[in-house]
Amino acid sequence: MAALLRRYGAGARWYDVLSGERWVYRAGREAGIRLLDPRPGDVVIDLGCGTGLNFPALIAAVGPTGRVIGVDRSADMLSVARRRIATAGWHDTVTLVEADAATLDPAVLRAAAGGRGADAVFSTYALSVIPERAEAWRRATAAVRAGGRAGVVDMQRPRGRWRVLEPLALLACATGGADIDAHPWRLLERDAADPPRVARAERKGGHLVAVAAALAPSVTA
Ligand SMILES: C[S@@+](CC[C@H](N)C(=O)[O-])C[C@H]1O[C@@H](n2cnc3c(N)ncnc32)[C@H](O)[C@@H]1O
Predict the structure, then answer these.
(1) What range does the record give for the signal peptide (predicted)?
(2) Ligand 1 within 6 A of 129 CB?
(3) Is there an atom of ligand 1 within 6 Å of 72 CB?
(4) What is the pLDDT of residues 183-207, one digit of tens each?
(5) Residue 40: is it exposed, middle or buried by C-beta count within 10 angstroms (0-12/13-18/19+)?
(6) Is 12 in the pocket of ligand 1 (CB under 6 A)?
(7) Which of ligand 1's atoms lies nearest the C-alpha of 49?
(8) What is the 3-state secondary structure (H, E, C) of the chain?
(9) Average per-residue pLDDT in the chain?
(10) Which of 71, 91, 107, 151 has CA 20 to 30 A from 54's CA?
(11) For position 191, which CATH number holds?
């Protein structure tokens, strides 16, 4: 566990450059935010937000009356996120919560959302890194209001002619401590209010999977 945490420790300042964001992973987060479709005024929880790479698109969508709540347990990743917020002047729009998502009390997130449930939870490339992902997911969705939405973007083994890149995908996942076979979007498929209306997109030969849906009332606040 400590080894995993170290991966998002001192190296956090290099994460945006070395994580393959530009060539690979940005395509997944863009697809995920499009499917989640946050609205002006929404409060969105970014679970395992890391350095805040989702913030620009989320903030553009929720606007000045909305809010993004970034949750991460790595102080070093959050310190990069904090610099991003300061540079962009997002102090009024983003709240950061330093916590282990697998033990975080959903009441803390509801309080950060202004005392009501958040409108959505979004998680990119984080649930595959969290061994207790089902518990982290349960706690995050419990902070979403009834009728709220969720989006998950994560990785799987590439398919078809892209399979030649599987060793590279495995290396990227091993470096980041991610389980490429975790398929955490299945938690959202399980908890969707209306399974036939789950939206899904794949990018980079199926290596990146984005899923979004309205949550079932039984799992929300
Ligand atoms: C691969 S990074 C993804 C960061 C960001 N979501 C993105 O798309 O770039 C995984 C993040 O999950 C965070 N993380 C890992 N385990 C966690 C836990 N139990 N609770 C909260 N955050 C966790 C790490 O600190 C790291 O910032």
Answers:
(1) none
(2) yes
(3) yes
(4) 999 999 999 999 999 999 999 999 9
(5) exposed
(6) no
(7) 6
(8) CHHHHHHCCHHHHHHHHHCCHHHHHHHHHHHHHHHHCCCCCCEEEEECCCCCCCHHHHHHHHCCCCEEEEEECCHHHHHHHHHHHHHHCCCCCEEEEECCCCCCCHHHHHHHCCCCCEEEEEEECCCCCCCCHHHHHHHHHCCEEEEEEEEEEEECCCCHHHHHHHHHHHHHHHHHCCCCCCCCHHHHHHHECCHHHCEEEEECCCCEEEEEEEECHHHCC
(9) 94
(10) 107
(11) 3.40.50.150
| Interval between CA 4 and ligand 1 midpoint (Å) | 10
119, two tokens: 């409108």
102 lines ligand 1 (CB under 6 A): yes
Amino acid (one-letter) located at 29: R
Nearest protein CA to atom 8 of ligand 1, as residue = 124
**Count of the separate structural domains present in the chain:** 1
Q: From atom 4 of ligand 1, which residue's Cα is the shortest distance away?
A: 50
Rounded Cα–Cα distance for residues 146 and 49 (Å): 23
Strand partners, 155: 208
Q: Is 128 near ligand 1, meaning CB less than 6 Å away?
A: no
CA-proximal residue: ligand 1, atom 27 (nearest): 50
Determine the structural domain holding residue 29 and report its residue range: 2-219
